[in-house]
Amino acid sequence: MTNGTPRRGAAVFRHLDKFIENRVLKAAVALAEVAGLVTLVVTGVSAAVHWVAGDEPPGQSSSSSTTPVSTPTPTETSPGTPRLSTPTAAGTTPADGPRCWTVARVVIDCRETHRYEEIPTTAACDQAAVVGYLGGLATLDVLVAHAAAVPGGGCSVDPGRDLSGSAKDVLRSGTAAAWRRCYDGAVHKNVACSVPHTGEYLATGSLRRASDDECQLAALAYLDQTPGNLSDDLVVRPLDIKTGTPDSARCSIDARGNHQLTGSVRNLGPRPVPLAS
Questions:
Q1: Can you tell me the distance from the alpha carbon of 128 to that of 119, in angstroms, rounded to the nearest whole number?
Q2: Low complexity: which segments have biased composition (predicted)?
Q3: What is the pLDDT of residue 96?
Q4: Using the 8-state DSSP alphabet, how is residue 7 labeled?
Q5: Contact between residue 191 and residue 184 where contact means Cβ atoms under 8 Å apart
Q6: Contact 177, 264 (CB under 8 A)
Q7: CB-based contact 95:144 (threshold 8 Å)
């Protein structure tokens, strides 16, 4: 009995050693290696996804510490953001408005004294473009301003004098007499309708020689009044201008007798005729 018991005990331990070695330890080691490998793969995939994706979707905040993206301050401008208009010094021009030039053809802010003002979009640099930019009708309005080329090949309005401020749509404000072309028979000279004169020019929408009837129709639209109602003070005449002459003036509205007009009769309507007293 005493000799057999140690042998059986040794055999049991040998079997236990084999069991531990083959079943438990190896299985545990294998499971540990698999778990470690899975953790390594998951960590690598997460890092790769974060590296490729970069910023988070809008509206979601990150739980990790990241450097915030800078937001433009009032003094910064993001790409594609319209720049606000601010006063500019002489020699520059607002980014959102037309360009202007001095008589020496130096570009300048249109709020400064200038001679030429750009017509930004026009198919042709002609008198019709000038009248349209100033807010008038090329078929009726005859102006002292004319078209002029500017540096770079663009088109501009030349009013014939220096101005301050944009002239765009100026003909839509009042009679705009200073922009309209009149005639002073006392000195036989074309003048602005803002100074005393004897007649005011108007167009008919055609470059052929005008008939009396055509001038009467043009005067009706120009005066916003039937010319016959003003026959005591005014007379409408066709001008002796050959067909094809580039100047659009084809008729005149004159003061009767030796009277002078002190302002434009454009859109006169029911107002009194502006005769000198």
A1: 11
A2: 57-96
A3: 60
A4: H
A5: yes
A6: yes
A7: no
Element (H, E) at 190: strand 189-192
Lowest mean pLDDT among 50-64, 72-86, 254-268: 72-86
Tell me what pLDDT residue 122 has.
83
| pTM for the structure as a whole | 0.65
List, in sequence order, every residue forming a beta bridge with 236; answer none if it has no partner.
Answer: 253
Q: Spell out the residues 6+ positions from residue 204 whose beta carbon is closer than 8 angstroms to its own.
A: 139, 210, 214, 215, 217, 218, 250, 251
Return d(Cα 171, Cα 165) in angstroms, integer: 14
What 188-197 contacts at long range (C-beta under 8 Å, 24+ apart), as own/partner pairs, is 190/144, 192/144, 193/261, 193/263, 193/264, 194/263, 194/264, 196/260, 196/261, 196/262, 196/276, 197/260, 197/261
Helix (H/G/I), strand (E/B), else coil: 146: strand
Where is 251: in which H helix or E strand?
Answer: strand 251-255
Distance CA 198, CA 39 (A): 100
The conformation of residue 195, written as its DSSP 8-state character, comes to S
* pLDDT per position as a tens digit, 225-253: 999 999 999 999 999 999 999 999 999 99
Mean pLDDT of the residues in the chain: 76
Using 50, 70 and 90 to split pLDDT, how confident is the model at 60? very low
